[in-house]
Amino acid sequence: MLIETKGLKKTFKSRGKQVEAVRGVDLAVKEGEVFGLLGPNGAGKTTTMRMLSTLIEPTEGHAVVCGHDLAKESAKVRRDIGYVGQAGGTWGEVTAREELVMQGRLYGMSKKAAQARAVEVLESFQLGEYADRNVKTYSGGQKRRLDIALGIMHQPKLLFLDEPTTGLDPQSRAHMWDEVRGLRERGTAIFLTTHYLDEADALCDRLAIIDHGEIVAEGTPLALKKEVAGDVVAVGVADRAAEAQELFAAKDFVREVEAGEPDPATGVAVLRMYVEDGAAALPELLRGLDAAAITPASIELHRPSLDDVFLKQTGRSLREEK
Amino acid sequence: MKTIRDTWLVYSRAMKLNLKQPVWLIVMLVQPIYFLFLFAPLLEPMDGMPGFENGAMETFVPGLIIMMALFGSAFVGFGLIAELRQGVIERMRVTPVSRVALMLGRTLSTVTTTVFQSLALVLLASLTGKLDVYWPGVALMLLIVMLTAFMLAAVSLGLAIILKSEDAMAPTINTLVQPIMLISGIMLPMVMAPQWLQNVADFNPFYYAVQASRDLFAGEMSTAAVWQAPVILGALTIVLVLWATRKFARAVA
What are the residue boundaries of the ABC transmembrane type-2 domain, all occurrences included (chain B) (predicted)? Predict the structure, then answer.
């Protein structure tokens, strides 16, 4: 195990009030895997990551990172991990090469070793062309690549990435996913936070869903989605949503119906239900609506997504949080 | 050993950044140059009067240098705020780099630039032909200037970490530094002040810095201020550097 935590807690004081940002997190991250922490903004993702990367001290709990006790051996932890924060880590009038060499030397490399490693890293992140230009001239994607390059200068066993693709355009985002997969192939384990469902789904070997400072679900994306067995049917109904909900709930093949808040503009409320077989259930449901003379505003049938997992655990949709 | 190596690394990065923007080094000289040419002439008739026994310009220029050290160093926190926002400090805090070095390296780069600015100012002042420069005295005076810059830079970096915003930083620094400057006798020697103000000045560490700079500039090595200033500034510097280092180690930005 690269990370093992027990009851990790962080309480902040804010304007005299105690705020429990993280309330007892138990996590395990294996060697060589991409582990994701998925949750809405303010769920405690970044705080958890900052604790594990030695930036802030946990209020309570215990953690072992790369075989070292987080509280007692933070210096050893630092040597084995890399960290790329949300804000990045470079700025202005320095060049990529200068910053990389500096970074290597901060990890104790000799000047020569750091220079050689910088060339290697610049090459593998396709930054060679811009290596001697000031960082302030970089595009968002180039800067993000440099941030990650800085994080792996010293070849850490474990790399922390805090919201690695937030604010990137779709192309840079796809690029970043490739970088992460490439690092994993070369044996670096990655611990990332994200609030993007597709990112968690596509990139992570395993993930934990965090909400209000607590882990609500953990597993591979596939296993998590399987927990929400069957298909998801979402029917939008204006005005008579409550009536429709009763009608759906009465069907024995419908396991659960959740009613969303009506849209303020159109008055349409979305009713989501989990059914064993969507294709068989849909005509039944529509016949029921027809008999009651309710006209649906929208109909959707899909396989469960991580959002359904989140919805099931927390009663809220992650999409609405944004 | 590691601390020294790390301090050197942080220092050389900070110096490189300074040298890439030489404009700032010159901008910081503009204010003292204004004072030198637009205010100092007002003092010329005071030559030889109480407080100006060493000569008008010989009294004013050392004070002016301390003022430059005060203001120049007090504003280094601004650069740190930008670096905090861009995640540079966070990135460095995750490396095994010595926490003291993160602070010391930056502080020392400020000390270095202040020394060069001081020398430039002394040279400019000597070009006016209105003062005698005693170079060994200037060299010793630079030690006081270095302590002043060291201390103020540490305070400024510590404040930057606490305040985290340029908008809060500017008024805080001004509120802090203006009165310190006014009652340190930089503009006019404190012997001209009423007794109560002189009493207040006795509690201002920079009053001693200005006194010592004037004495050393004139080549007087045996006055009280010459030992008082390094002792007081030195002790305060140690306390404030420790304080700022703690802030650096715990910065939540």
Answer: 23-251
Distance CA B119, CA A74 (A): 44
- Distance, in Å, from the CA atom of A161 to the CA atom of A177, rounded to the nearest integer, reads 12
Of A171, A128, A173, the closest CA to residue A146 belongs to A128
A93 shares contact with chain B (CB less than 8 Å):
yes
Residue type, B165: S
Q: B15: closest CA among B76, B106, B89, B91?
A: B106
- Work out how many domains chain B is built from and give that number: 1
Q: What is the ipTM of this complex?
A: 0.85
Flag if B20 and A93 touch (Cβ within 8 Å): yes
| DSSP3 helix / strand / coil % (chain A, rounded to 5) | 40, 30, 30
- B106-153 pLDDT, tens digit per residue, is 999 999 999 999 999 999 888 887 788 889 999 999 999 999 999 999
Which has the minimum average pLDDT: B43-57, B65-79, B199-213?
A: B43-57
Those residues with Cβ within 8 angstroms of residue A201's Cβ, 6 or more apart along the chain or in another chain = A221, A305, A306
> Does the beta carbon of A104 lie under 8 angstroms from any beta carbon of chain B?
no
Q: Does the pTM of the predicted model rise above 0.95?
A: no
- Percentage of chain A beyond pLDDT 90 is 52
Cα distance between residue B226 and residue B228, in whole Å: 6
Residue span of the structural domain in which B99 resides? 2-250
Calpha distance A90→A96 (Å, rounded): 9
Say which of B6, B91, B252 has its CB closest to residue A85. Answer: B91
Out of B13, B87, B252, whose CB is closest to A89?
B87
At position A230, the amino acid (one-letter code) is G
User: Domains in chain A, ordered, with CATH?
Assistant: 3-220 (3.40.50.300), 229-303 (3.30.70.260)
Assess A177–B contact: CB distance below 8 Å, yes or no: no
